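<tokenise_the_fold>
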Amino acid sequence: MTIDPADDPSNETSGPPIAPPDPPLIAYQTALKRYDGARLVEIHAALGGADLGGKPTRLPEAIAERLSSSRVAEKLVSTLNHESRVALGLFALTEKHAWPGLGLALGLHILGIPYAPAVRRLLELGLISAKVGEMFDPVVDYDRTIGSDLGITIFNAHPAVLNAARTVLPESDPPPEAGPVRQVRESDGLEPILRLAAVWQRIEEAPIRQTQQGTFFKRDRERLEDDPVLVGPITDSIEPLPDMALLWIALARSVGLIVPEPGSDRLVAATPDFWGDNAVHLPQMIATRWLALRDWHEQAGMRSDTSPVDLSIPYIRASVLLWLARMPEESWVALEDLSNHLATLAPGWNHPILSSVTEARVSGYDTLAAILLGPAYQLGLVRSAEETPSGRRVVQLTPLGRYSLAIGPPPPPRASFDHFLFVQPNFEVIAYRQGLTPSLIGQFSRFARWSQVGAALELKLTPESVYRGLEGGLSTDAMLERLSKHSSRPLPAGVAEALRTWASRRDRVTYYSSATLVEFATPEDMTAALKLWPALTDRVAPVPISDRLLLVEDEASIPFTRFRMAGSRDYRRPSEACVDVEADGVTLSLDLGRSDLLVDAELVRFADEQRLRSRPDGTSSPRRLFTVSPTSLARAAENGLTVAQMARWFQQRTGSEMPSAIRLLLHAATPGIEPFSTRRPIVLTVPSEELLDGLLQHPSTGPHLGDRLGPTTAIVPDDDLEYLRKALSDLGLKLGDPLKRSN
């Protein structure tokens, strides 16, 4: 019997699921619990909280609960000075509840905001909490927390405060405006969405696994890094994007397009409903997640999991975009001028590592180019041009960029082109990006596989992609309608027929999200088991799916007490050795206690099953026998099974090499083999072992003797018989007639 442990009723919990606490709120309260009691009392009083009656241990929870009121949070935020509102705006803009102290300091410095007073007021009101490695007062000991200990300081914002915060622009003078421009370039913003759609499909086809440290298994990572759709060059590119496959995976995970599988170490694709719920807002969602992405660097790529340093660029992206937003909407700014402007406000802002210890510098111009002309350009947040006549590179925020920063209205919709598809008879679909929108990308991703991303896009209709669409709730007519609506010519007849054929095949398959398969040794055993099966009332009856396999939808209905289980098998584990080779070398014995359902299909490719052995009591033995014969091997060769594949199978399933008897049969089936050579040997026999030793050693007789068969016998080759006779005669010895037979 084969039972999946995942279906064990003992693993189920009773009652409705309990929602887990909000992780950001837990981090906020954990930091508060490190505070001195007097400081907690001051924060609680500043929030207008009631006296707790001498219960200081409840203060962290009381402060958090007080701020959970949106009315209280919004009122407190409205009373903040400009510097504190800018600092809180960085939390809201990136939707990050936690910021390292050095990162927040750098982001504020290049905005011209004094770091200490901005954060001090937020701490005094409890709008953010600070966490360091030891107990401290975040206000009294503030000089220490912004000094050498700042690198281990983590500021956590209360979730309700984050919702109440707004984007605030710097008040100081912006960088100088650039002159007239030419060659304006603006991306369509579709590149990240197309690549994320391909990531979603690839992970839907084969989920990726993670180690305990959160890194991907090497085979899974290499599969995605070698996918040309994920890592292929971007047609409209100004600055390259390093480690593209890992970047798309990180963004897909952050927007919820791929999610952790509960109870496992795998990442799986979100349900197709994601596209209908989020496609319209996906450009803005990706932009926000990019601003918050801290493990990927525009110049260095994905940070190593073992790297002890934190890179600085992830903490300045939002501030750089805020300076562009500070410019008039129609104005351009040169990257060179922006770099000089930031250097004036925050000397040394272009440290590559988030630490004031290093003296290393990178070009401020190159850093801004990597941010603004790399992902910001591909996301459609900025447009680029050349200044006339200097030729300097200049940039400007787009309407989508202002909307993503929450300082402008939604961007106008793209111009629509209904007929942008060419559906070909070979099931390839060519799409021109001018007609695509995030919503359409999501619609086509549900039932067509992206196979090429460039100026022209290519999708492929396959049985698997159509099955994905059907499982996601689409009908065949809905798929054909979407293709027809956007195709520039009628669909080829073969395409519509193929989609309906693939759909009809799937309709003949019953899908069970979870079930238990029970395997019996013989059809007679299964018939007897069904007779012993208890009568069912409200439960689904077992379904025979072969002469020896029974599908049980509800495992609790299996009468385990009436059956003897030979073993169980979890198909999430690798295959194991369950076949023994009998002494004759051609009989294979299958142990039902260790076998799985796949080994049957493997064995019948090159072997024929015998009748089961019977015990003295008449019951079946827990072993099934298969015989390898010339006929079965001929069948295997006809079906494409190679000798190398068979050798690997024997290593995996028997734990040893392929038997010599089977190799003999394979040799016999080889065409054009030479016949075995035969000859009749002459055996020399002498009275003692010493005499044979002498004959083999003597130079006149030794060359004429063959292999030694025993202590006193050796073979005499036919061609050397007369030479040996003469040599013995010269020594005074005689050789008997080999043709003379004794009566």
Residues 191-205 form the longest helix (15 residues).
